[in-house]
């Protein structure tokens, strides 16, 4: 069960570029007794899928989706596959799995998977995104970041990063990569795999993927927290946030610049509320706000952590300030020029 008592089935999204070791890690994790109650969906790119053969030897029944990329044409098939798994679970045709692992193709941007879960009311009722895990190949990451933008998007979207093939990398490569990953996604946990072996807890949703821990780590802009057009920054406010003004601002921000918002996480002090509200978005996908029972510390400032691509942090700050200063819906509409 996800943290906070949510009874929905947690979805673990395992992403990472081609050849970064996702299937090896999945095969290792599925041997662990804690994952005996897992269902697995595997998506592959190409006419002939091989990953399901490699994983299938573990006495599990992965479902191989039609060949294609989850980030574009496969979205409809993903919905049907998730619904079918749940229906078969309810009819007793398959074991009552308590978690769902989706291994994406190496070419996938994770955002459309999150969009599928958020947009489909049936799926959203039964499933919730638990944790996004991305594998990063230490040997090829440096060159890959320059050639393949989706690698950077996978890193930015992740709650946890697993560095693979460190034993094969040239001396000095892995420490340099770890520093770069920390700059790209400061809130992500970073671990290293040893020949595909990891702590299975890395694929378990827990409090490390909630605002309680990562919001405490947020800081004001760090000049090193950038990679070309991608950078991270934190927006903070000492004043309580009017919910209606914030909702309009955030919706407009996502509408105008969703493709550049690689990851947004926030903890808000909402005016009139005694407890914090957590927000979470990936690109154009805004997850339902989560009301937390209490604050993680005595510091009750609102903080929103952004990982963006080719988006000026000052524009985000100026637009936020403009909306928070306006108290009526009519004046908030006039503030749309701040974008």
In a nutshell, what does this entry contain?
Helix content is 34%, strand content 22%. The protein is of the alpha/beta class and 339 residues long. It has two domains: 3-209, P-loop containing nucleotide triphosphate hydrolases (Rossmann fold, 3-Layer(aba) Sandwich), CATH 3.40.50; 211-338, 2-Layer Sandwich (Hypothetical Protein Yjia, Chain: A,domain 2).
List the helices and strands and how they pair.
Blueprint: E1 9-16, H1 22-30, E2 38-42, H2 51-56, E3 63-64, H3 75-91, E4 99-103, H4 111-119, H5 121-126, E5 127-137, H6 141-147, H7 149-157, E6 160-164, H8 173-184, E7 189-192, H9 211-217, E8 226-227, E9 230-237, H10 243-257, E10 261-268, E11 277-282, E12 285-286, E13 290-291, E14 302-309, H11 313-324, H12 329-334
Parallel strand pairs: 1-4, 1-5, 2-3, 2-4, 5-6, 6-7
Antiparallel strand pairs: 8-9, 9-14, 10-11, 10-14, 11-12, 11-13
